[in-house]
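INTERNAL AUDIT FORM
Audit reference: QA-55
Scope: verify that the stored structure record matches its stored sequence.
Auditor: D.O.
Record contents follow.
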Amino acid sequence: MTTNSIQYIANDKGSYTSLANFAVTLGTDVTLFPDYNTIVLSEASANDAGAYIDKEGLNFHIEPIDADDADPEMLVSFRTADAATLRRLAERLIDQKAAVDEELANVRESLTKARNDVEMYSKWYRDELATNDRVKSQIQAIAVLYQSIFADK
């Protein structure tokens, strides 16, 4: 799912601090990046933030951002991803891990069943091999008896 957020990059620390103090009172998703003088707000609060910036005369570069939680590689390189997108990504990864764990359990169960089948077929083979060896021995014994009885003829 794509998040349409607005990224506010302050050109000075005072502008960043002022908008950050205001943004946290908006009641919408706010993600602060003080190391980058950047604030990411949801679109729902864009009008309020814009009005505040104009009223206070703050110095910002404003740009929309499209962050998609379906593309984790993009988010890794995107240093100012908003919290809502990161939460959805975390939820997606947790769901994927659960699916992988379930599949792993199914594979282990199948492997255990296959091992049990191999042991069962191996036992049957050994049992039949022993029976065949016993029959061969009996046939050889009968042949020896037959030869000893009818050796002269």
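Auditor finding: record pair retrieved intact. Strands lie at 2-10, 30-33, 38-42, 60-68.
Action required: none
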